[in-house]
Amino acid sequence: MSALAIPNISLNNGRQIPQLGLGVYKVAQGETERTVLDALEAGYRHIDTASFYRNEAEVGSAVRASGTPRDEIFVTTKLWNTDQPRPLEAFEESLERLGLDRVDLYLIHWPQPEHGQAVDVWRALIDIAASGRATSIGVSNFEIEHLEQLIAETGVVPAVNQIEVHPLHQRRELSQFCSDHGIAVEAWGPLSQGKSDLLERPEILAAAEAHGKSPAQVVLHWHVQQGRIIFPKTSRRERLFENADIFDFELSDAEMTAIASLDEQRNFGPDPRAFNDR
Ligand code: NDP
């Protein structure tokens, strides 16, 4: 538990991850270090970055400058698509930019099925984990068939699958597959990236009114009540506190059903089966 009383979730290798963290995608360059320092000061202990976000160096400086022991902060970074042919070198470059000697979680950012390299890349991540430089390893944006292939060919089950999930895109079948295989689901875009009217939907507003919470807090709690890991992005100090103050209420069955009805299978990010960015 941190000062904000953020619970931990157990991963399939027995490691613990704080259920809520800060995502730093699109935190402006030059602002990331301050934002991460604010988050750590507020009690966040989990930061989600990626080489693609171009702010690993700022994340690392904030972690080192914070005064919080390294072992108390969970740092995730990711292997970008163009680096799939050179995973080990790319991982080492990430560690160098972060200024850390290990990360807590290293992810394959996208499966890139057209390139057919995911299994080889996964074997490289298995080696990285064995070296102790990534405490846990996982994937992001993997569909069921991509997960099945990794597991069948290596026997190593990813600790997490980080996927787009929010009330407008609930991913029930994929989430069930992950749960059946002991893969923790991390929801990216938990607030639909601010790209929809989600926070104005009557079902969300009614629950917010009933619990004395903001619409964003209702949506974030909806995730954690289903056991997902989240790291909403904000560059605003006051929202760091708002987004973490979500563990003191429960949505009723009726409220959960009402939010379940919002699923439009509407994604705002790329389709993982078709995204081949290189
Ligand atoms: P989010 O769903 O977290 O939405 C972020 C947006 O919501 C920002 O515009 C932010 O604005 C706004 N916001 C934050 N808090 C509130 C609030 N309390 N009330 C109203 N608006 C709010 O989208 P992200 O894409 O950032 O997803 C979260 C994280 O997931 C990323 O930062 C990244 O770490 C990860 N990610 C991973 C991907 C992958 O492919 N693996 C893809 C995309 C994201 P403001 O900053 O002004 O507060």
Rg (C-alpha, Å): 18 Å
Portion of residues within helices: 25-40%
Individual helix count: 10
Mean of all residue-level pLDDT scores: 97
- What is the number of independent domains? 1
CATH topology, by name, is TIM Barrel
Primary descriptors:
278 residues, alpha/beta, TIM Barrel, eight-stranded parallel sheet, two-stranded antiparallel ribbon, 10 helices
Task: Give a short synopsis of this structure.
This protein is of the alpha/beta class and 278 residues long.
Report on the structure:
With 278 residues, the protein is of the alpha/beta class. The protein is built from 10 helices and 10 strands. It has helices spanning 32-42, 56-65, 87-98, 118-130, 144-154, 172-180, 202-211, 215-225, 237-244, 253-260; strands spanning 8-10, 16-18, 22-23, 46-48, 74-79, 103-108, 134-140, 160-164, 184-188, 229-230. An 8-stranded parallel sheet has the order 3-4-5-6-7-8-9-10. The radius of gyration is 18 Å and the shape is globular. The mean pLDDT is 97. The structure holds NADPH dihydro-nicotinamide-adenine-dinucleotide phosphate (NDP). The site of NADPH dihydro-nicotinamide-adenine-dinucleotide phosphate has 26 residues, from α9.
